[in-house]
């Protein structure tokens, strides 16, 4: 008994049809396509970076460029205090910034979905307690909590990732719980119960596939805020001091006096890179939301 | 936190709610806020007292200490007491306003927090007022004519500004207006709250502080107002289809009057709740903005605590920030009850 054959009437078209219909609808949204294009470009650049950037361009001891110089020949975006090319740093920084953002999102989504599913399925005291816990976390201001957590866990990518996940799972949990409640009210769940499906089977085989699209939409928006949080936490000095990310570039620029030196070429590129990636994820997320939710038409 | 859930049952009771329900309502909200605060304390205790591997080592880091001294410090800090006892001491001290002793300032955390409270309130208050006014106004305008050129410009610029890291925007504004860039001369001071060479009182001081306030406040407004535009815009759009607007138009009211007198008051309700619920954003903004502009508030204090890291100080700012957000949420619940005639007594 697969989830597909259990799907309610109206969804009984094979999955790949639904998927290609989704793609066609998405292709009609220029903003979403533009966002996707930006993300693909950045993704390719980040993946290909090791092909054209080596240690001798990133190692502060080995580089020989002019120090904190505005854009000149050979350094199209200028250089930092150590003489490294800002352009290469921004490209290299994409690797860690994007991967922390994606991993933190994966953690957030797994945590949030688990809590949401459990709270929606077990509507007794378990659900109540879980929702109370969610509400308490929503009430806490997220940045102070994230700062405290990663300060205690120590500098580094791992503690930042954990801090982001712990502070941002609540939105997913609420969303998934609401959706779980509505899915569980449908007749096919009752049928599964009558046929003897256990709690785990209902949650994993029947509810989860129906909640999945929503989870994916909310996760694209989560990536956007996770990348922003990563940059903020790293800027505040919680990141790994040796690695290159957009946040750590901005931190180095700030502490190294790039602001007083008026070194706009050093500050602009990482910020614009963050802006583009966050915007890309937000545009894609919104486009997917529009396609999946007909109520949003005209918004 | 619970403002939305609170509206649910109250609305369900509908017109039957009486004025005499006010006290129990306030009581339950107050109890919920207290529980939230206790949970904050538990989380704070877990993070700052249970998670660090060995506070004594951190405290005596880099200093030669004998084994006997270490034991002495452990005893002083009460680290060998059972966990529940340590937790009760911690809660008792916090309720008495004793937030511990800062390692780097060699001063009690509460006095540090009190010193820095004023500047933060000034910055956050100004930024909140400006961004709420701007955000609501833009949201109303663009929601009312959604799809228009004005709407598209307002929506896309708020989306852009939402995607920008606050601290980066702060640094860019610093370069542009304080350091001066190309033809732009240095217009505004770069950091701090006042110029120490000027007198610290009187009219000149007020002007000086105002000058220092412009850039941090602008940075926060630019990042925060976008949220309010989105919320207000979508709640106006939600109201657009309502029959009462058709009635108002059928009465022959001008478009402007329909918007101002009928649509806006109704659309404001969810927005007010959302604004209070999103106060955490203002707190985050305060931390990053104050760090960039060395504004001597709680956010900058957090930044200073982070660099050591000075755990008691960090714990103090965490508790103060959380408590203020909880209080604001409580306030939102109360305000909502007075704003929404469906909840209020007839």
UniProtKB/TrEMBL annotation, chain B:
It is a multi-pass membrane protein. It is found in: Cell membrane. Keywords: Cell membrane, Membrane, Transmembrane, Transmembrane helix, Transport. InterPro entries: BPD_transp_1_N (IPR045621), MetI-like (IPR000515), MetI-like_sf (IPR035906). Its main location: membrane. Residues 117-332 form the ABC transmembrane type-1 domain. It holds the Pfam family BPD_transp_1_N. PANTHER family: OLIGOPEPTIDE TRANSPORT SYSTEM PERMEASE PROTEIN. This is ABC transporter permease. It comes from Microtetraspora fusca.
């Amino acid at each position: 008994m697969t989830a597909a054959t259990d799907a309610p009437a109206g969804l009984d078209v094979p999955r790949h049809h639904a998927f290609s219909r989704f793609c066609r609808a998405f292709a009609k949204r220029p903003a979403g396509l533009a966002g996707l294009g930006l993300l693909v470009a950045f993704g390719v650049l980040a993946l290909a970076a090791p092909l054209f950037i080596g240690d001798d361009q990133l190692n502060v001891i080995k580089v020989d460029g002019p120090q904190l110089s505005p854009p000149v020949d050979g350094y199209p975006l200028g250089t930092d205090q150590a003489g490294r090319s800002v352009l290469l740093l921004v490209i290299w920084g994409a690797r860690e910034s994007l991967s922390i953002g994606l991993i933190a999102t994966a953690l957030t989504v797994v945590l949030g979905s688990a809590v949401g599913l459990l709270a929606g399925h077990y509507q007794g005291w378990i659900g109540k307690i879980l929702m109370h816990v969610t509400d308490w976390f929503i009430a806490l201001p997220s940045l102070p909590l994230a700062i405290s957590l990663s300060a205690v866990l120590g500098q580094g990518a791992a503690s930042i990732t954990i801090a982001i996940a712990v502070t941002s799972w609540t939105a997913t949990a609420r969303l998934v719980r609401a959706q779980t409640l509505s899915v569980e009210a449908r007749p096919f769940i009752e049928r599964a119960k009558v046929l003897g499906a256990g709690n785990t089977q209902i949650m994993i085989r029947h509810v989860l596939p129906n909640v999945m699209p929503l989870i994916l939409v909310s996760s694209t928006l989560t990536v956007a805020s996770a990348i922003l949080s990563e940059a903020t936490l790293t800027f505040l000095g919680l990141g790994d001091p040796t690695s290159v990310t957009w946040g750590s570039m901005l931190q180095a620029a700030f502490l190294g006096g790039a602001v007083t030196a008026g070194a706009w070429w050093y500050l602009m590129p990482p910020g614009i890179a963050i802006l583009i990636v966050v915007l890309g994820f937000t545009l894609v997320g919104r486009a997917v939301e529009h396609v999946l939710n007909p109520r949003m038409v005209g918004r | 936190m619970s403002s939305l859930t609170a509206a649910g049952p109250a609305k369900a009771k509908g017109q039957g709610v009486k004025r005499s329900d006010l006290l129990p309502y306030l009581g339950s909200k107050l109890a919920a806020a207290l529980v939230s605060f206790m949970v904050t304390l538990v989380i704070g205790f877990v993070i700052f007292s249970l998670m660090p591997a060995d506070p004594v080592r951190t405290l005596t880091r880099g200093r030669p200490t004998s084994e006997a001294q270490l034991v002495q410090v452990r005893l002083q800090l009460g680290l060998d007491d059972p966990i529940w006892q340590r937790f009760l001491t911690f809660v008792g001290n916090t309720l008495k306003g004793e937030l511990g002793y800062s390692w780097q300032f060699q001063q009690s955390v509460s006095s540090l927090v009190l010193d820095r409270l004023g500047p933060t309130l000034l910055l956050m208050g100004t930024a909140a007022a400006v961004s709420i006014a701007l955000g609501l106004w833009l949201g109303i305008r663009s929601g009312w004519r959604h799809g228009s050129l004005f709407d598209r410009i307002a929506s896309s610029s708020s989306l852009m500004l939402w995607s920008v890291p606050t601290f980066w925007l702060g640094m860019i504004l610093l370069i542009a207006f304080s350091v001066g860039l190309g033809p732009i001369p240095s217009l505004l001071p770069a950091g701090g709250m006042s110029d120490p060479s000027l007198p610290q009182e009187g009219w000149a001081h007020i002007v000086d502080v105002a000058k220092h306030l412009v850039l941090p406040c602008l940075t926060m407004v630019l990042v925060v107002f976008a949220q309010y535009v989105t919320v207000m815009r979508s709640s106006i759009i939600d109201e657009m289809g309502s029959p009462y607007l058709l009635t108002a138009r059928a009465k022959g009211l001008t478009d402007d009057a329909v918007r101002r007198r009928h649509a806006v008051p109704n659309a404001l309700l969810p927005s007010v709740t959302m604004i209070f619920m999103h106060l955490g954003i203002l707190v985050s903004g305060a931390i990053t903005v104050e760090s960039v502009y060395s504004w001597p508030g709680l956010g900058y204090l957090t930044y200073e605590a982070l660099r050591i890291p000075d755990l008691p100080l960090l714990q103090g700012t965490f508790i103060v920030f959380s408590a203020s957000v909880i209080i604001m949420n409580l306030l939102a619940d109360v305000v909502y009850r007075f704003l929404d005639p469906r909840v209020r007594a007839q």
